[in-house]
Amino acid sequence: MRRLAIRVRNLVLPLVAIIAVWQLASSIAVVNPVLFPSPAKVWLAAVDMFASGILFKDLLVSLRRAAAGFVVGASLGVALGLLTSRVRLFSIGLSPLFNLLRPIPAIALVPIAVVWFGIGEESKYFVIAYTVFLAVWLNTHHGMEHVPDTYIRAARSLGASRSLEFLQVVVPASAPHIFAGLRFGAALAFLSLVAAELTGASSGIGYRLDEARQYILVDRMFVGLIELGVLGATLDTLFVWIGRQLIHWEQA
Q1: Could you tell me the pTM of the whole model?
Q2: Could you tell me if 53 and 111 lie in one domain?
């Protein structure tokens, strides 16, 4: 409980300080209130969006898209990461292609995703899955490829079969890298979500941000940004907690 209280304090105090400075800057008119609304105005916009049902609806839609894209991208990333790191044929054939694709940002894929899949949900899933896949693949490939040779030699000296060596030595040794890739991929899912929702969407946080931009409703834009920040921070905290429970040997 004490550790939890310390974490809450470390999170709340900086937020309070930021909001206080933000409110002070708004009160003394340091910035244009139209372009940089006060915390009170952003709060009222959030209340209005919640009362109308927009806030909750957009949240559910965006979470569904991010979750679907993450599951597809993460599954493919782990599976192909295992293959490219352990099977030379896959490494030669696929690794150069994936390394070529990695620098391409998600937003650059939006036009071609629309052409391939239309403006429905499939194009949004594709953009999110693409971004997550490359992050998870890279971490999985790197983790599997850099398992210490001493672990492998020790397992073989004890007579472990190849399958046992893989399951009880290689996978546990690379698990921290794989989980780091999943954690990073979850964060990227929200980044690419906004890009995916900027085209051909009628709901979602990204769509609402673009709609607010068209009408210069900066307070509503701030609500969307804060919503994304809270979602990302919550998800990251959840991944850290799950990682500590599953990969307990890394903490030892």
Answers
A1: 0.84
A2: yes
